[in-house]
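name: query_chain
kind: protein
chains: 1
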Amino acid sequence: MVSLLWHIGHRNEAGVDRTPLHVDGESVFISERDGDDVKLLGVYSSHAKAEERIREARLLPGFADEPECFVIDDYVLDEDEWTDGFESEFLSVRVTPPSSSPR
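structure:
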């Protein structure tokens, strides 16, 4: 298994009074269609190593401005993820942040 670590710089207008929506309940809100900037920080050999990187990244410019907006996606190597094709649309999803995120 590998863990991909993402950070979302929010530029959407999905919040109250069209302000950026960062976290919606227990999930990080992502809308590339509305301008959110999704960055891949790295691919790690474990979920724990990705969480360690979050602790470091939260101290850096830009990432420190949105400390709860990290997402870790765990994947099994050599396993298909897209099996049914796709439509060309921008991403707009809610994902659960890593357990190390402050509440």
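note: DSSP finds one helix and six strands in the chain.
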